[in-house]
Amino acid sequence: MLKDELAILPAGSRVAFSAELQNVGVKPEIVIQISDNGPGLPPEALRVIFDPFVVRGSVPSEYGINLMACFFIVHHHGGKIEAKSQPGHGTTFTLRLPLKPEPAALPQGGAEFFQKVLLNESLWEKLLASG
């Protein structure tokens, strides 16, 4: 995730990390926030932020593979990830990971997303060629 964020931030930008325990009683979780003071994202970019087929930078090989991987990893561990951003006010990623995870279930609408990713031959060709 950080690789994608650093690739699009202007020189001199800052990235801040924070972590805290929440819901310590019933469903304890760790909440990790990664925020930057960059230019932020327009709403249309925020809607597709975890889509691996969107080019992130000026280089066509910079697809959103890293954010897609974060999405998979967080959901596999029973957590949630979201991104919030406003043009001119930076971007914040929030990861919520349970301290005692239950078996992972697909997020709503996730089956279509996973199928789109897993059956995309050009994506896998790019991944294998870059590695």
Walk me through the structure.
With 131 residues, the chain is of the alpha+beta class. Helix content is 33%, strand content 23%. It is built from five helices and four strands. The chain has a four-stranded antiparallel sheet with strand order 1-2-4-3, covered by helices on one side. Strand 3 and strand 4 form a beta hairpin. The longest helix has 12 residues. The protein is globular.
Write the layout of secondary structure elements.
Blueprint: H1 2-8, E1 15-22, E2 29-36, H2 43-47, H3 65-76, E3 80-85, E4 91-98, H4 110-118, H5 121-130
Antiparallel strand pairs: 1-2, 2-4, 3-4
Largest β sheet strand count, sense and barrel closure: 4 strands, antiparallel
Q: What is the succession of H and E elements?
A: HEEHHEEHH
Helix content estimate: 25-40%
Euclidean distance between termini CA atoms? 17 Å
**Largest beta sheet: strand ordering:** 1-2-4-3
The value of Rg in angstroms is: 16 Å
Strand content: 15-25%
The number of E-state strands comes to: 4
**Which regions have little confidence, pLDDT < 50, spanning 5+ residues?**
none
